[in-house]
Amino acid sequence: MKALVAFGSLLAFLSVFAIWTERQALNTDDWVDTSGRLIENPTIRAAVGDYLVDQLYANVDVERELTGILPGDLKQLAGPASGGLRQVGGDAADQVLKSSTAQSLWEDANRAAHEQLIAVLEDKKEAVSTEGGNVTLNLGSLVTNLAEQIGIGADLAKKLPPDAGQITILRSDQLKTAQNIAIAIKGLAIVLSLLTFLAFGLAIYLSRDQRWVTVLFCGIGLVAAGFAVIVARQVAGGIVVGQLVTDESVKPAADAAWSISTSLMVSIATTVILIGVLFGIAGWLGSPTSSARTSRQALAPALREHVAYVYAGLAIVVSLYFLSAPTQNLRSFLTTLVVAGLAAFGIYQLRRQTMREYPDAEFSDTFGRTKERMVGAVKGANLGERASRLRQGIAKPGGGEAPTETLPTSEDDARLQRLERLASLHEKGILTDEELAAEKSRVLGSGEKS
Fold this sequence. Notes:
By secondary structure, the protein is mainly α. The chain has helices at 2-26, 28-40, 42-59, 62-69, 78-98, 100-121, 125-129, 140-149, 156-159, 175-185, 188-206, 211-244, 251-261, 263-285, 290-305, 307-324, 330-357, 363-391, 410-427, 433-449; strands at 135-138, 166-170.
């Protein structure tokens, strides 16, 4: 059993990475949404702005453009003005990238690049022949937009070379490796997710005598897998950024990009942790601890008389969870279906256990005990106040001495409460006449000895 639980926990850990990779790398809408959040980050936006300024000056003779714009004697200021524009270009680019127009151009460029990437990974011939198999992020329109905003580029688009503002994402010599990885990833998320629950389900099924322990350990395994993913994300971020980014000035933007692009991974890991917590609660409910027994007794009437409503509530919760998920696809549907099936099986087993342990439990049992505790607490508080007043020797209003009162001892209180409890159990038919008499004799006998 332990081996199956450990194996299922490992599969849960790997499935988080598989789901994240599939959604982030192979889903265009998810990537475009992520790219929008990237450009909203000030650090990343500043880095992109610096890149656009560099591309503008690398592909356009800005001094010549200014010479053509400035009138008469002011043409000689084109050189200093060009240098000054470069100095303020970063701030100008940041303001440009904050605009809705520029952000739409950014998202359009990312969508086009991702669609081209998917076409290449799916080995579509028309995509492979384009750009020799390279996949690029074309930010040329943003370079043009920047030039227009700072006043030097009314017709700049015609003068920009085709490769201006293009970032190569995938080179043609990397094509075969990328296609093999994409083939391996496709479907891996759904397989790993189903295998995780299969391993846990098999472990729970085989552990007949201590099933609640296995369920509890499955929950612990899922929680551990979720937290392990979060830790691995932090470690991997340091390695990836450290290895791929050599320019120290760009590292803050790279760190921010890693954090945003892997935020979906944290969301998936959090879902795994939540499912693990639900497994833990289920394991605790089935345990022999006093708190679990009390909870089962409280739930027994609902599970016995209103089980249809319980299953209907489960169906509503599962439906709302699936509909609120960011992506509704086959993997999400099957995973939700498996979790719902496990929950329904857990409710079935809990119902069997409560009917066996508390076949005659009623709602009034729970509420009655709560009322008794509240009344007892009030009586105890009043009794404590009276005792305190007597100990302090509080005088009567007329100035006399404190009245003499005989306080019941704690043993008397305890004995009285036991007798009241026995009478209540006898009224409900839990104790027979003979059992009631025997218990009363025992309680009263212990009082005489004391």
